[in-house]
Specification:
single chain; mainly beta; 6-stranded antiparallel β-sheet; 3-stranded antiparallel β-sheet; 11 strands; binds FE2/S2 (inorganic) cluster
Length: 136
């Protein structure tokens, strides 16, 4: 899905700009006049990476200082990776292409319905106890 999210001129030079597509928060960064889009939520503890600062192509998380390459989403220092997105720029308009990185899980086949429990036959009325013959 290709979504126009911002103008290039809205992205600060040394920080990010947070945009939202559906429920995804995405941080846009501008490095050497190229725009990059990375998952805005830090995978460490959830800080907004757009509030971090840039060191060349690395954004430094404002909370604990982990660094993520805005081109790849990788954190070379910590060996983890966050999502990043393809970006198109047309004049001043920034478009982000979002696709789920992994295909949606195949839908599990519907669980077979358990056959209805057999209805227990109605309890037969116990035959009335015969009156004991009266003695004597
Ligand atoms: S929340 Fe980003 S490094 Fe901890």
């Amino acid at each position: 899905m290709r979504t126009e999210v911002a103008k290039v001129s809205e992205i600060p030079d040394d920080r990010g700009l947070r945009v939202q597509i559906d429920k995804k928060f995405i941080a846009l960064f501008k490095v050497e006049d190229k725009v990059y889009a990375i998952n805005a939520i830090c995978p460490h503890a959830g800080a907004f990476l757009d509030m971090g600062w840039l060191d060349e192509h690395a954004v430094i998380c404002p909370l604990h200082g982990w660094d993520f390459d805005v081109r790849t989403g990788e954190s070379p220092s910590f060996g983890i990776k966050t999502g990043c997105f393809e970006v198109d720029v047309e004049e001043d308009a920034v478009f982000v292409i979002t696709e789920d990185p992994s295909p949606p899980e195949e839908e599990a086949p519907p669980e077979e319905e358990a056959p209805p429990e057999e209805e227990a036959p109605p309890e037969e009325d116990a035959p009335p106890e015969e009156d004991a013959p009266a003695a004597g």
